[in-house]
Amino acid sequence: MVLRAQPVVFGHRVFVTSESGEIYALDAKSGCTYWTYMAEAPIGATPSVAAYKKPGGGSGYAVYLGDRKTNVYALDVNSGALLWKRKADEHRVAGITGSPALYDGRLFVPIQGVGEESIGSTNNYPCCTFRGSVVAFDINTGEVAWKTYTVAESLPRGKTSSGVQLYGPSGGGIWSAPTIDPKRGALYVWEPATAIPTRCSRARMPSSHGPEDRRRSLDEAGSRSRQLGHGLRTEESEQSGVSQRARTRLRFFRVAHARARERPGSSDRSPEIGPGVCLRPR
């Protein structure tokens, strides 16, 4: 079994994901297996755990994770039962390699893509149309609250000598987990610099997020922001590294403080997880 992500400890259980796509719920002390679940594709990101509301009332805890085919899963912590499953992106090269982030009843999932350029060099593939994004899901139902892309919509940009249509801009995949700043209502994501640049504003960074060279004033003249669902606003910023090759972009998404945070069972001192029955004693 090949593991590419850190395990998560919650209560007396350890949740482990694998390159084969199998998720394991283990006893933190003995290592025995409580349950397993097989995803549709490899999983290379650490799962997240949070409380959720059950449809008929009451609450429970769920494990949230995404696979390399952009399937997002919510599994019951106690039984491993599938609560919901959603497709975060339909593009053929899209995948999830960053851990989902949880905040205020939302699950924020980063989307990356790799290999489209290689596909475009053969088979008369109309390259390139993949765009990185962040998708916000309702943690209880799996419904999409909003989705925003890191680059503008891909449009026709001429043809090859053989007549194959070309598209751009593209890229901007988000490979790692988002970081949430509850005080400022912001969600931060990093992306590698794309071959086709996009317009970005420069934003002043909080002092806790890096050295002085990261803290820049907002360039209002070049800023690009747009209103999203549920009163969310996105803005973009760019940070240049030591060289052009090392250049990365920092995006931050404004998260609306539209309601008080709802966390069923948050008053409990410890998670309410059943004892379970070991399927595979160690």
The assigned CATH architecture is Beta Barrel
Number of strands: 20
Q: List the total number of helices.
A: 1
What can be said about the biggest beta sheet?
Answer: 5 strands, antiparallel
Name of the CATH class? Mainly Beta
How much beta, percentage-wise?
A: 35-45%
Q: What structural category arises from helix and sheet content?
A: mainly beta
> What name is given to the CATH topology?
Lipocalin
Cα shape: elongated
Q: Uncertain regions: pLDDT < 50 for 5+ in a row?
A: 194-249, 256-270
Mean pLDDT: 75
Q: How far is it from the N-terminal to the C-terminal residue, by CA?
A: 16 Å
Number of domains: 1
Radius of gyration: 20 Å
The run of helices and strands is: EEEEEEEEEEEHEEEEEEEEE
| Helix content bin | under 10%
What's this entry about, in short?
This protein is mainly beta.
Supply database-style keywords:
5-stranded antiparallel sheet; 2% helix; 38% strand; mainly beta
